[in-house]
Amino acid sequence: MLTFIGLGLFDEYDISLKGLEAVREADLVYAEFYTSCLMGTNLEKMEKLYGKRVILLSREDVEQYPNWLNEARDRNICFLTGGDTMVSTTHVDLRLRAEKLGIETNLIHGASIASAVSGLTGLQNYRFGKSASIPHPYESRRGTRIISETPYDIIKQNTELGLHTLVFLDIDKEKGYMTINTALELLLEVEGKRGEGVMRGTAAVGIARAGSEKPMVKADYVENLKSFDFGNPLHILVIPGKLHFLEAEALVKLAQGPMGFMEKAE
Ligand SMILES: C[S@@+](CC[C@H](N)C(=O)[O-])C[C@H]1O[C@@H](n2cnc3c(N)ncnc32)[C@H](O)[C@@H]1O
């Protein structure tokens, strides 16, 4: 049996009671923290609460060589992930591989950043379009700095449809956690290169440390938000499309957005 468990958003206490019970009863517990991680805890604290050793897996262990899956043929294995295990991950691939090996699989859900964003900002979840992810820029073989333009295109398409865009920010082993500030600078760089005007004068909302006691939620125009200090990671960004008047009110009152947001609301 292989049980996928979402750990929630911030610390070891965000696991559900069902999840905790499953971990305590498991023969082996594996975890990956490259798709998301819980910044308010660490492996040691998790192991203490669970009363179990947690074996950390790399992206390669999960996506390329999941040999450890074979252990689930005759043992109870739990696989832990930050947030919800199936939201903005490719872990359905792992589940399908396990099913092909004749291993029974099960899901225990966790709070996800995808729903926390709606809760914290007041932006309604059914008014979001396709999500985007901003990776760190990289150098080509010729030494040219390459910035992905895909997130900009997704924001542009959603904006044209009046939809909000949720923008996940890269977690990289070497380059670290991308901040809201860097993400906005990269989007403005793409915009400048193309001579387009999707981002300029547009509203944006930054969220830091969702799930902690004091998450930071700040709305403003892109140019102002670019230099706002959001503090420690993890960070995520939303570029709102058309605002319903309740959404605009929430951004002004709950995220200290400018009053100008109210004037543009419908
Ligand atoms: C690829 S997504 C994975 C989402 C995860 N499976 C979930 O359901 O929450 C991870 C990204 O979401 C954002 N994120 C995750 N947890 C967060 C938190 N507690 N606060 C702010 N942003 C967060 C960060 O941008 C991070 O790089």
Task: Describe the 3D structure.
The protein has ten helices and 14 strands. With 266 residues, the protein is α/β, with parallel strands linked by helices. The protein has two domains: 2-111, 3-Layer(aba) Sandwich (Cobalt-precorrin-4 Transmethylase, domain 1); 114-263, 2-Layer Sandwich (Methyltransferase, Cobalt-precorrin-4 Transmethylase, Domain 2). It has a five-stranded parallel sheet. The chain is globular, with a radius of gyration of 20 Å. The mean pLDDT is 97. S-adenosylmethionine is lined by residues 9-10, 35-36, 82-84, 87-89, 112-114, 168-169, 171, 207-211, 234-236.
Strand order of the largest sheet: 3-2-4-1-5
Beta-strand content: 15-25%
Distance between the termini: 50 Å
CATH architecture label name of the largest domain: 2-Layer Sandwich
The residue-averaged pLDDT reads 97
How many β-strand runs? 14
The percentage helix is 25-40%
Helices and strands, in order, run as EHEHEHEHEHEEEHEEEHEEHEHH
- CATH fold descriptor of the largest domain: Methyltransferase, Cobalt-precorrin-4 Transmethylase, Domain 2
CATH classification, class level of the largest domain: Alpha Beta
Which ligands does the model contain, each kind named once?
Answer: S-adenosylmethionine
The total of helices stands at 10
Coarse morphology: globular
CATH superfamily of the largest domain: Tetrapyrrole methylase, C-terminal domain
The domain count comes to 2
Uncertain ranges = none
Query: Could you give a short account of the major beta sheet?
Result: 5 strands, parallel
Enzyme class: transferase
GO molecular function: diphthine synthase activity
Family: Belongs to the diphthine synthase family.
Organism: Methanosarcina baikalica
